[in-house]
Every structure is written in structure tokens, then in C-alpha cells.
Amino acid sequence: MLFALTFLVPIAVLAVVVLAGVLPAQRAAPVRRGAALCAALAAVPAGLLAVFGDRESVDVPWLLFGARFSVDAVARPLLLIAALLYGGSLLAPT
């Protein structure tokens, strides 16, 4: 579940920003501003996966002759650092 959220939440924030381009200019600016303020929350599922994702893994048989995504002892601190840097960098422009 956390793997899916790690990929889907940033895509959802991006979709809100892109779909705001369809709105009139008066409505698009507040929607984009709100998405920019919430963009740092897109890194939260990755941080939760790094802290609480013990034995969680995802098998994707159609990707590159079968792929398996999991978080092991080496990847856990790297994922946490990446989530903190990504969230912090998204907070900087707002």
C-alpha cells in the first residue's frame, strides 16, 4: 500500500497542477498555489515507507523481465534522506 502511495501521491499533485491549466486564469492561480503548498506532502508516503515498511515488497512481472521493489536495510536510510530532501526542497519556493 505504501509503495502505491509513494508513486501515486506525487502524480496526483502534478495532475492537479496540469489540469489547472484548463481553468480560467482567475481560478487557475489559487489552484496552483494550493497544489504548491500541498506538494511537500507528496514526500510523506516515501518517508513512511522508509520508517514503517518492514517486509513490504511489490512484484511487477511485466516490467523489465519481472521486477521486485522492496526496501531493505541499505535502502531504508537512503529513502528517508531522499524523502526529507524532496519535501524540504518543495517547501522552499512556498
Describe it.
With 94 residues, the protein is mainly α. The protein has helices at residues 2-19, 25-38, 44-52, 75-91, and strands at residues 57-60, 67-70. Strands 1-2 form a two-stranded antiparallel sheet. Helix 3 (44-52) runs antiparallel to helix 4 (75-91). 12% of the residues are buried. The model has no long low-confidence stretch (mean pLDDT 87).
Describe this structure in a few short sentences.
This protein is mainly α and 94 residues long. The protein has four helices and two strands; from the N terminus they run H-H-H-E-E-H.
Tally of DSSP β-strands: 2
| Sheet with most strands | 2 strands, antiparallel
What is the rounded distance between the termini? 29 Å
Shape: flat
Count of helices? 4
Structural class: mainly alpha
List low-pLDDT spans: none
Helical amount: 55-70%
Topology:
Elements: H1 2-19, H2 25-38, H3 44-52, E1 57-60, E2 67-70, H4 75-91
Antiparallel strand pairs: 1-2
Helix pairs in contact: 1-2, 1-3, 3-4
